[in-house]
Amino acid sequence: MITLQEMCDKVMPLDAEAIEQAKHRLNRLTKPEGSLGKLENLVWQAAGVTGELLPDLSSKAVIVMAGDHGVTQEGVSAYPSEVTQQMVLNFLAGGAAVNVLARQAGAEVLCVDVGVDAELSHPDLIARKVRRGAGNIARVQAMTREEAEAAIRAGYELVAKKAAEGVRVFATGEMGIGNTTPSAAVFMALTGVSAMDAVGRGTGIDDAMLVNKRRVVEAALKLHAPAASDPLGVLAAVGGLELAGLVGVILGAAAHRCLVVIDGFISSAAALAAVRLCPAVHGSLVASHVSREHGHALLLAELGLSPLLDLHMRLGEGTGAVLAFHLVDASARIIREMATFDSAGVSERKGE
Description:
Oligomer: single chain
CATH architecture of the largest domain: 3-Layer(aba) Sandwich
Radius of gyration: 20 Å
Number of domains: 2
Largest sheet: 6 strands, parallel
Helix content: 40-55%
Strand content: 5-15%
Shape: globular
Number of helices: 15
């Protein structure tokens, strides 16, 4: 059984030689240097992650981690907890937004029960339940350290399996009613940012519920007092099972030299925890979009990531990340299919 330390030890730095080769080839293509902006960044990042100048990025998957949260008992969500299990069945039936967008992108959707508070059965469900729902963080810890590590391991091992099957690009998806609350708590615990800056409306709560939600998060952090220097302890104290599962997805993707496209606020909170556990994973992260959830732009800034898209989305599930798959495909085509100045017989910039 792989340990968290062993997962982190498997993550290697980006391949500097492959990055330089990619940048050199980009500068030989029939365009002004840097004129394709963030698409060019994706080209050399993919080279650095995979160690290949022309990686095959055609096989893609979005991993939707699902888990429930006891903190919904505190009135922090506009929807009841049973929606989590209902949406899991919707994913498995192919009817959710992420399914539609993944079909368009040619990507596989993998739905993982890592902590749903129900006994689910479906032939396509990946059952990795650590426990039935995280504890109510306003009163008890979300989970034990051992449970947090088990959820991380579930994500890591699934990615390892799919990478062995040829998947090269992963997206982080999630489902868990109430999960913007622990995500904000994790963000605050790891950075010290205030509830006013980190806590948003989630599924669309009103002003009174927002005030209560901020109070709940502040109370949870005061009760558990997790240390920013202990990311696993933060996840255990105030996180969630699907958050920890996504940490494992990110660690697994980085360890197996795959790109990992992160989605919105919840995915980004998981990414922050993953980076704090293992700074080397940062090079594998692609920020798909900035969502309308309050605090997401600040969270991306903390990660030092620039989002590819701003579509005013706030759905989650991995929807923004799957939309960004099209840009990953575009970057792969650029390096493979564009002509160079030499091959096309195009004159270069004067003075060269």
